[in-house]
Design a protein that fits this description.
38% strand; alpha+beta; 9 strands; 7 helices; 225 residues
Length: 225
């Protein structure tokens, strides 16, 4: 039998099931199967959304190159390396710093996007490394990591979607933009704020920095093999 009827309602589908001789049992079974498929699909979407929200990318690492006592004070020399978010083996920046003491702070500026954009995979948090400073220093005395106002190379492709005026304003006046909620909302941004992680550093270890798509920065300690 050929069906010339275009099905556009559940009633039409019910008619097919009944005509096929499956009756009420067949209809409810079919509904159950459809419900199961929908549940699986929804769960798959939920898992993707959770993965997008919580996924971590490596964005750099630090290691101690020397640690010694000078005139009664411990001094730590360290190397900071920024790595490509999609390719941790690719180095974007490498600098060395000498810090009094062994507790070192790593300061970044974070741009967070709306959760629905992250869940769908349309956006993920941006970050700008700002400075490194020790426990006995004020943040203002910290050593710069990236040049303030410069557009980071890692975001060159992303920024092609913005006009030149917007690109310059975005990277040069991030702090001002943080206080313009309507302008942020227009770009799907929920917040712009600082994030500092710090650690007591020791030779023989790597301190690996990671960021989630939603903008949380963490530091993990692993052996320097």
């Amino acid at each position: 039998m050929r069906w010339g009827l275009r099905l556009s309602s559940w009633a039409g589908l019910a008619a097919i099931v009944a005509a096929a001789g499956l009756g009420a049992w067949g209809w409810h079974h079919w509904q159950g199967q459809r419900g199961l498929v929908a549940l699986i699909e929804q769960n798959a979407e939920l898992r993707r959304a959770i993965r997008n929200l919580t996924h971590e990318s490596q964005i750099g690492y630090a290691k101690v190159t020397a640690q010694e006592v000078r005139e009664g004070r411990l001094v730590t020399r360290l190397k900071f390396v920024e790595t490509h978010r999609a390719d941790p083996g690719r180095r974007l920046l490498e600098k060395e710093y000498e810090i009094a003491g062994d507790v070192v702070h790593f300061d970044a500026l974070i741009v967070r996007f709306a959760p629905e954009l992250i869940e769908s995979g349309q956006a993920r948090a941006l970050y700008l490394w700002r400075r490194v400073y020790g426990e006995t220093m004020t943040p203002e005395e910290g050593f710069a990591i990236e040049t303030p106002g410069d557009e980071p190379r890692r975001y060159a492709e992303l920024c092609k979607t913005l006009s030149l005026a917007d690109r310059q304003r975005f990277w040069q006046t991030l702090w001002d933009l943080a206080n313009e909620p309507q302008r942020l909302a227009d770009k799907g941004i929920t917040a712009i704020h600082g994030n500092v992680v710090y650690q007591r550093l020791r030779p023989g270890l790597l301190y690996v920095f990671k960021i989630t798509n939603s903008g949380d920065v963490t530091v993990e300690t692993v052996p320097d093999l």
